[in-house]
Amino acid sequence: MTITGAQVERVVAECRRVLEGNRQRGVSAWDGKRYDFVCPSPATYPFQWWWDSAFIAIALLRVDPELSKQELRCLLQGTRPDGFMPHMLLWEKSAHERAYTEYSIRLAHPFYTATIQPPVIGRSIERIYEATGDAEFVREVLPAVRKIFDWLDDIRDPDRDGLIAIIQPDESGLDASPKYDAAMRLPFDPPSDTLPALRVSMQRLFKAYDGKPMREQPLQDVFLFEDVMVNAIYADSLRALAAMCRATGAPGAEDLEARRAKCVKALLTKCWDDRAGAFWDLSGKAEERVRVLTFSILFPLILPELEPKIARRLVEEHLLNDKEFWLPYPVPSIAASEPTFDPDWKTNTTWRGPTWMNVNWYLYWGLRQHGFDDVAHELARRSIELVARSGVREFYDPLTGEGEGAEDFAWTTLVLDLIAAERA
Ligand code: GLC
Question: Which atom of ligand 1 is nearest to the CA of 394?
Answer without folding.
Answer: 12
